[in-house]
């Protein structure tokens, strides 16, 4: 079966949306490395024109260290292999994926065998218009595009395990097993009513009209649209705009894909650096996820306190394991209509890691190998102090809020000389409050992500001879978390931060 998976990919044409994203890059590299005889990979890239798309392909994919192993493995054949990559300027938020060339669209509809939709905007508090356009309407446009592909064998959609995590500041109450179940069209997490994406779009348009009438600045528009997204998410039970719009995207795909298009969902948890392939410890140097930001600020001596329950499980999974699961799901579901399933890919059920575990590992790592500051001096770190409730966090902030008030008064007394200091501290306090509110549902989250379908997939392919240890590994039980973070992830994180 292992050879069958590799052979299945031979002479296939694959469309990848969100092609410059972290997960998509690792997917593209793996496909080319294990099956250089793939026919073509259309890579949808947000770009103004073909030349811009080509430039992004080289700058954001091929020139990355991620592709060094591929470059070394295929040596003189490398250029002929990467010629299989066809960058397409487009945008999932537009009809026909923003592909304006009719002849090209016709070629894609005729040739595409597999679509991998990894396009997403992942900011928790993204502008509502952008998040809805990409995560929700983008899924609709991908589904409509897939239906028009004459030889489509598989549509794989990348979602997030957190679509079923409730919000409304009740994260500390969220316990139990979160199932690999589908959404009904219009379903809300708290039963608040029917969720209609067209009504949500209308709300955005009405707000935009109101803002333009007030001659609002771009900054004011952005803030208003971010606030609207958070308000709508919490109204319907989600903690943030990202999870709301990703959930709507799932609903739309289930509704729009016809029975002849095999459809599967991958719901990864928090994706971290590569565990093994193409080499250990690779991650993007342009953005960092929640635990990465915590580790960076802690290592640099800028984080003394941590908001969260030490026993809260932080569900992480290396990116190469997610990619392996994606490839296996594609091979298993291709050409099998009505075999639609959801696969949650994470570690909380089989091999849980707690916040206490990871903070202890970080403390040990940065004590043994301190971060070197701008002056060439090692940064001394101490064990993080936990704030186990929002009340304790707010009490901690009171001294800083009081200080901002004092600075404001002092600034007026001294003719505005302290205005800059006051504004800076006020901004930091507001940012800390906003971040705490955004992450509270996760900091006190006690749920575990069910992986029954994912485990059944592992068992099925193992019985059929797939190499789950070397080639298509995606079982988190093989990970030694302390070794992974100290030897692989944190060194990769420091390296990525220093490349920024």
From TrEMBL:
It is an enzyme of class 1 (oxidoreductase). Keywords: Lipid biosynthesis, Lipid metabolism, NADP, Oxidoreductase. Gene3D superfamilies: NAD(P)-binding Rossmann-like Domain. Its EC number is 1.2.1.84. It holds the Pfam family NAD_binding_4. Residues 16-326 form the Thioester reductase (TE) domain. Catalyzes the reduction of fatty acyl-CoA to fatty alcohols. This is Fatty acyl-CoA reductase. It comes from Eucalyptus globulus. The lineage of its organism: Eukaryota, Viridiplantae, Streptophyta, Embryophyta, Tracheophyta.
């Amino acid at each position: 079966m292992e050879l069958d998976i590799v052979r299945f990919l031979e002479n296939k044409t694959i469309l990848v949306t969100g092609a410059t994203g972290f997960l998509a890059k690792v997917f593209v590299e793996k496909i080319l490395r294990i099956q250089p005889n793939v026919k073509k990979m259309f890579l949808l890239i947000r770009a103004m024109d073909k030349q811009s798309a080509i430039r992004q392909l080289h700058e954001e994919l091929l020139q990355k260290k991620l592709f060094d192993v591929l470059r070394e493995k295929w040596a003189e054949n490398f250029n002929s292999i990467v010629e299989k990559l066809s960058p397409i300027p487009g945008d999932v938020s537009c009809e026909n994926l923003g592909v304006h060339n009719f002849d090209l669209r016709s070629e894609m509809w005729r040739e595409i065998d597999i679509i991998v939709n990894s396009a997403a905007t992942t900011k928790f508090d993204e502008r509502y218009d952008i998040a809805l356009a990409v995560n929700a309407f983008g899924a609709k446009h991908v589904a409509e595009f897939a239906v028009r592909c004459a030889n489509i064998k598989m549509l794989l959609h990348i979602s997030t395990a957190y679509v079923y995590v409730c919000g409304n500041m009740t994260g500390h109450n969220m316990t139990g097993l979160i199932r690999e179940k589908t959404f009904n069209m219009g379903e809300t997490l708290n039963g608040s009513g029917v969720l209609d994406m067209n009504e949500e779009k209308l709300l955005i348009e009405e707000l935009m009209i109101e803002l333009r009438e007030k001659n609002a600045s771009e900054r004011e528009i952005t803030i208003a649209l971010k606030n609207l997204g958070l308000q709508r998410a919490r109204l319907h039970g989600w903690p943030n705009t990202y999870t709301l719009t990703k959930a709507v995207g799932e609903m739309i795909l289930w509704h729009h894909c016809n029975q002849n298009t095999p459809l599967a969902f991958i719901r990864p948890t928090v994706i971290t650096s590569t565990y093994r392939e193409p080499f250990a410890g690779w991650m993007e140097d342009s953005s960092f996820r929640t635990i990465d930001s915590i580790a960076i600020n802690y290592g640099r001596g800028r984080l003394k306190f941590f908001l969260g329950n030490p026993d809260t499980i932080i569900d992480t999974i290396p990116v190469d394991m997610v990619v392996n699961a994606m490839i296996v799901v594609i091979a298993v579901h291709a050409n099998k209509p009505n075999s639609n399933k959801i696969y949650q890919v994470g570690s909380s059920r089989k091999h849980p890691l707690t916040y206490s575990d990871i903070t202890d590992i970080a403390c040990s790592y940065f004590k043994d190998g301190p971060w070197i500051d701008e002056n060439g001096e090692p940064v001394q770190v101490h064990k993080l102090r936990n704030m186990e409730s929002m009340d304790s966090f707010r009490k901690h902030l009171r001294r800083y809020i009081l200080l901002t008030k004092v600075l404001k008064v002092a600034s007026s007394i001294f003719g505005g000389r302290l205005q800059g200091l006051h504004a800076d501290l006020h901004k930091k306090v507001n940012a800390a409050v906003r971040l705490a509110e955004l992450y509270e549902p996760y900091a006190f989250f006690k749920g575990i992500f069910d992986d029954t379908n994912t485990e059944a997939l592992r068992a099925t392919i193992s019985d059929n001879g797939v190499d789950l240890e070397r080639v298509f590994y995606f079982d988190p039980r093989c990970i030694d978390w302390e070794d992974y973070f100290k030897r692989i992830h944190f060194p990769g994180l420091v390296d990525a931060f220093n490349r920024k």
